[in-house]
Q: What sequence folds into this?
């Protein structure tokens, strides 16, 4: 039983057609014709195109078209399908108590870690210090100047080396005695870790 390649090649030899001559007649590249004769299917286009080639070649070589087509379908190798031995089967998501426990534990650790990181950052950072009075180059008439502002809670405040009380909201206020020689007010805030923040304000003290 002849294959499609043998049928076409034998008919071409009987017609004494070279591959180039058959190419001229059918307008099919001789490389494709040779691949059909040798049945090198990997070097050919998809099956529908090969089917068209075989019909044209059969007509040019006076080969029965129905026989050629039937033989091609018999000889043409089936398309190889890749089979996944472990198909990906989607699973419906189900909320389980185990998942609830894992997420809960994760949230607890996240909150604890965040709190510790916040406290550590506060511990190693200088305290906040905002001084509302006096302002820079403030002119002071008399023997006293009002010093007040805001800082963090649990911070020690000194004004010109004198300790000042800080309330529960971080506010401090003190009336400092000054003399004409007083040129500057120095406010220092020291945290529990020993970190310090300092604000200096120049003043001009005038006599009444």
A:
């Amino acid at each position: 039983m002849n294959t499609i390649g043998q049928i076409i090649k034998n008919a071409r030899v009987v017609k004494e057609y070279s591959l180039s001559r058959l190419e001229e007649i059918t307008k099919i590249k001789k490389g494709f014709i040779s691949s059909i004769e040798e049945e090198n299917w990997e070097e050919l286009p998809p099956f529908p195109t090969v089917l068209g080639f075989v019909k044209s070649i059969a007509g040019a070589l006076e080969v029965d078209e129905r026989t050629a087509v039937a033989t091609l379908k018999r000889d043409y190798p089936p398309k190889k399908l890749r089979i996944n031995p472990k198909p990906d089967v989607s699973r419906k998501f189900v909320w389980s108590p185990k998942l609830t426990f894992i997420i809960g534990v994760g949230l607890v650790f996240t909150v604890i870690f965040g709190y510790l990181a916040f406290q550590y950052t506060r511990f190693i950072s200088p305290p906040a210090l905002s001084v509302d009075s006096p302002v820079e180059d403030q002119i002071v008439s008399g023997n006293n100047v009002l010093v007040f502002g805001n800082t963090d809670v649990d911070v020690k405040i000194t004004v010109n080396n004198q300790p000042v009380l800080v309330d529960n909201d971080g506010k401090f206020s003190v009336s400092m005695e000054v003399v004409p020689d007083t040129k500057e007010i120095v406010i220092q805030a020291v945290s529990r870790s020993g970190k310090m923040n300092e604000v200096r304000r120049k003043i001009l003290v005038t006599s009444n």
Residues 97-124 form the longest helix (28 residues). Residues 129-206 form a domain with the Immunoglobulin-like fold (CATH 2.60.40.10).
